[in-house]
Amino acid sequence: MKNKIIRFPEKNNIFNPYNGIEDIFDTIMCRADSGLTEEDKIKVSHAKASFQEAFWFSMKVVIPISLVGGSYLLLKWGLKKVNNS
C-alpha cells in the first residue's frame, strides 16, 4: 500500500500558510519515498527546514517592515497633499 497523506480540516486553514508548506514537502517525501536514498531524504528535510525558515523570516520581518514603511510613506504623502491645498 502506498503512503497516503491524510489532510485534516484544521490544517487547511487559509490563514496559516505554514501548514501548506509542510503539506507540500510531506507530499514530496511520500511520493518519492520508494526511490529516495537516505542521503536524498536528508537533503529534502534540509530543504524543507531552510524554506520554512525563510518563509517565517519574511512573515515576521519583511512583511511588517513593508507595512510600516508603506503606511509611513502614505501618511507623509497625504500630509503633504493636505498642507499644499
pLDDT < 50 stretches: none
The main β sheet shows up as: none
Shape: rod-shaped
Percent of residues in beta strands? under 5%
- Please, what is the average pLDDT? 74
Number of helices: 2
* Fraction of residues in helix: over 70%
In terms of structural class, how would the helical and strand content be classed?
mainly alpha
N- and C-termini, Cα separation: 73 Å
Q: What is the element string, with H for helices and E for strands?
A: HH
Radius of gyration: 21 Å
What is the tally of beta strands? 0
Keywords: Membrane, Transmembrane, Transmembrane helix
Task: Write out key terms for the chains shown.
single chain; 85 residues; mainly alpha; 2 helices; membrane; transmembrane helix; transmembrane
Summarize the structure.
The chain is mostly helical and 85 residues long. 74% of the residues lie in helices and 0% in strands. The protein has helices spanning 17-32, 38-84.
